[in-house]
Design goal:
The chain has 205 residues and is an alpha+beta fold. The protein has two domains: 26 residues; 163 residues, FAS1 domain (Roll), CATH 2.30.180. The chain is built from eight helices and seven strands; from the N terminus they run H-H-H-H-E-H-H-H-E-H-E-E-E-E-E. It has a seven-stranded mixed sheet.
C-alpha cells in the first residue's frame, strides 16, 4: 500500500513537471519579429523594416510583428531574395534602399510606403497556416494578405511534389517557393521563402 501511494505521488509530481515544462516552452516562443531578428540569413528583412519604420509615419511594422495579441502567418524572404530585388550582393543596407528610391525618382518616404505594402503581401492576419494547410489549398488561394493599396490580394498556391509556390493575384507579380516551413512564434507562424513577392515597382521618372 505504501509503495502504491509513493508511486502515485511520483506520477503526480511528474505530471506537474511536464505541465510546467509545457508552459515554459510556450512562454519561450519568440515573436515573429524576434525570430527574424535572430535567424541567420534574414538580416535584410530587419534592415528593410527599420527603413520603413524610420521613413513612413504610418508604419510600425516592428511593433506589429512583436504584438502577441495578434496571430499571423508570415512569409519571410531571405537575404538572397532581397539581394535579387535590389540588384545587390550580400546583405541589404539602408543606403541600398535609398539608392533604389533615387533610381525610381521617389523620396525615401514614398519608397518606405511602397515597401510597407510589399511587406503586407507577405502577411496573412488572423490565420495560422502550416505548410500542410497551404498544401491543402493547392491550385487554390490563401489570404487575404495585408496589401494596403485599395485592393484585396490573395496568394495563389501551386504544389509540385514538396515544392510549394506562392504568387500574389495582382499584376505581373513574382512568385516564391517556401524553403523552410512551420517556424512557430508566440504570435503566429513563419515560413522562409526564396524570393520577394511584389508587383512592378513605381514608374521610373
Amino acid at each position: 500500500m505504501k509503495k502504491l501511494c509513493a508511486l502515485t505521488v511520483v506520477v503526480v509530481l511528474m505530471s506537474f513537471g511536464l505541465f510546467f515544462m509545457s508552459c515554459d516552452n510556450e512562454e519561450t516562443l519568440q515573436s515573429l519579429y524576434d525570430i527574424a531578428n535572430s535567424t541567420e540569413g534574414l538580416e535584410s528583412l530587419i534592415v528593410l523594416i527599420s527603413f520603413i519604420d524610420q521613413y513612413s509615419v504610418e508604419s510600425d511594422i516592428e511593433e506589429s510583428f512583436r504584438d502577441t495579441t495578434i496571430t499571423a502567418t508570415v512569409f519571410v524572404p531571405n537575404n538572397a531574395a532581397f539581394a535579387s530585388l535590389f540588384s545587390i550582393s550580400g546583405t541589404l543596407t539602408e543606403s541600398d534602399i535609398s539608392a533604389f528610391a533615387d533610381y525610381y525618382g521617389v523620396s525615401d518616404g514614398e519608397m518606405a510606403g511602397y515597401l510597407a505594402d510589399i511587406i503586407g503581401l507577405h502577411v496573412i492576419v488572423d490565420q495560422k497556416l502550416y505548410k500542410a494547410d497551404i498544401i491543402a489549398d493547392a491550385d487554390g488561394e490563401i489570404g487575404p494578405t495585408e496589401w494596403d493599396d485599395g485592393v484585396s490580394v490573395n496568394l495563389l498556391v501551386s504544389v509540385d511534389g514538396e515544392t510549394v509556390t506562392l504568387t500574389p493575384d495582382i499584376g505581373d507579380s513574382t512568385s516564391a517557393d517556401i524553403i523552410t516551413a512551420d517556424i512557430e512564434a508566440s504570435n503566429g507562424i513563419a515560413h522562409i521563402i526564396d524570393d520577394v513577392l511584389w508587383p512592378p515597382p513605381p514608374e521610373e521618372e
